[in-house]
Amino acid sequence: MQDWHYTKNGDKQPPVSETELRQKLADRELHPQQDLGWTAGMDNWQPLGDISALQAPLSAPGASALNPYAPPMTSPGELLARRENEDLVEIPPGSVQLDVMACVKRAWRLTTQHFGIIFLTGLAYFGISLGLGFVEGMLGAFLMTPEQRSNPFSFNPAMLPVQIVGALIRIGLAAGLTRASLNLCAGRDVSPSQLFGEFGKLLKMAGGMILFYIMLVIGLVLLIVPGIIVGVRFSYFMTAIIDRNMGPIEALKYSWNLTRGNAVNLIGLWFMLMMMMLAGVIALLVGLVFAIPVVTLSVTLAYRYLQYGPPALEERSAR
């Protein structure tokens, strides 16, 4: 039987039979456009969804194989991830060069078009963050001993649980802000309530952050350049968890593959966004009201651009 070679998330996998590969496609283990396939007789690797030999329907399983009480194979989160951009076709990782200026210009247009809801959502985010900081400060003052009050640099073990809870809440809020940004870039409705919609993924996000910072520290210890590369290539792991409902390790691998061949472009993007934030600070902080959403949307649009190419920046009507 002829073997088929294929990739998954940009990584080459061991060869399988045609039936096995078709089954993986049917079970949605593989993406029909992002993952590639090749077998003897083909000139080049092609997206699995474009290979006619793999599109024939599989024979239905016998009645004995059906279990009406079995749990569904696909979670609602996975279905949402697939359908959110169903009118776009994913491109192979590294197949396009990120257009930094196009992302920033599109972010600028989105900010001007939707400034009202962006301002309300941002105001809710920063208001909750400030309130959380106030509560932490009050608890810290209450839990401090007289000796600790005299030494502001002393460690207070009683504050550790409070700080952990506060950090988790901030992660959840930041994830909600990312979801709102993804929705806005996709032409979907946005509301401040979306800030609270991603707390169910806290464990995945916390696990991903721990792994990310471990790798970042190792990269910085070795040399500054490896640390920068690690920071850039893994930078979209959190967005992947929110967008695709991935686990921590899967999201880190996805981010690494997604940013292939675009590390320099991403560094250029972030440098430009840093200059924009600096300009907002110089403009008596008032400019930050506009600079922050442009920066946030630029990063999200770059993520979509790496997934779908230039069509990701096209105008999309609200849904």
UniProtKB/TrEMBL annotation:
PANTHER family: MEMBRANE PROTEIN (PTHR40076:SF1), MEMBRANE PROTEIN-RELATED (PTHR40076). This is Uncharacterized protein. Residues 4-54 form the GYF domain. The keyword rRNA-binding does not apply. Keywords: Membrane, Transmembrane, Transmembrane helix. InterPro entries: DUF7847, DUF975, GYF_2. The chain crosses the membrane at residues 115-135, 155-173, 210-236, 267-295. It comes from Brevifollis gellanilyticus. Residues 206-297 form the DUF7847 domain. It comes from the Bacteria. Pfam families: DUF7847 (PF25231), GYF_2 (PF14237). The keyword Transmembrane helix applies.
